[in-house]
Amino acid sequence: MAGAVDSGPGRQRGALRAWAAAGTVAALVVVADQLAKQAVRDSIVPGEERRLLPGIELVNTRNHGVAFGFLPWSHLVVTLLIGLALLVLLAYFARHSGLPLIWLPTGLLVGGALGNVLDRVRSGAVTDFVKLPLGWPPFNLADACITLGIVMLFIVIDHGRREQR
C-alpha cells in the first residue's frame, strides 16, 4: 500500500500524525455523541416524538442490541463483537496508516463504537434518537459515524489500491 516501503523517520512521523488525527476524530465523535444523547435523555420523555424536520423526528429510545436491534439482550456477545471489530480495524490501520485519509474513517469508526459502548457500560443499552420515515429504526450520532466510517473506509482502501496499480 502507499507508503508501506519507506520505514524511515518520515514514515514514522506520518504514522504518528495519522494516529493523532484518528484519535482526535474519535474523541470528537465520542464527545459529540455523548452530549447529544444526554441532551435527548434530559429533554425528551421515552415514547415522545418531536418533529425536527419534515420526515425526521427526535425520539428517546433504548437499543439493547447492535445495529437496528440485532442480537437484543446479548450484552456480552455484542461487546465481544465490537471489541473484535475494533481490534481488526486498528490492526489494519497500524499496517496501512500511510494511506491518504485512512485516519478519518478509522476515527469515525472508533469514536462511534466507543460512544455506543459507553452507553452499554453505563446503562446496558444505547440511546437512539433520530427517527426517519418508512419504519427505519431510530439511530444516534455514533451510528451515523459508524455508517459513514464504513463507507469512507471502503472508498479510501479502493483508492489506495487503484493508486498502487
Provide key terms for this protein:
165 residues; 62% helix
3D structure, described in words:
The protein has one domain. It is mainly alpha-helical. It is elongated and about 55 Å long. Helix 1 (9-43) packs across helix 3 (103-123). It is built from four helices and three strands; from the N terminus they run H-E-E-H-H-E-H. The chain has helices at 9-43, 75-96, 103-123, 141-164, and strands at 49-53, 56-63, 126-131. Residues 1-5 have low confidence and may be disordered.
> Tell me about the biggest sheet?
3 strands, antiparallel
What portion of the residues fall into strands of 2 or more residues?
Answer: 5-15%
Structural category: mainly alpha
Order of helices and strands: HEEHHEH
Structurally, the number of domains stands at: 1
Instruction: Name the average pLDDT.
Output: 87
Number of DSSP E strands = 3
Distance between the termini: 10 Å
Roughly what percent helix?
55-70%
Q: What would you call the shape?
A: elongated
Tell me the strand order in the biggest sheet.
1-2-3
> How many H/I helical runs?
4
Provide the gyration radius in Å.
Answer: 18 Å
What does this entry show, briefly?
The chain is built from four helices and three strands.
Q: Which secondary structure elements does this structure contain, and how are they paired or packed?
A:
Blueprint: H1 9-43, E1 49-53, E2 56-63, H2 75-96, H3 103-123, E3 126-131, H4 141-164
Antiparallel strand pairs: 1-2, 2-3
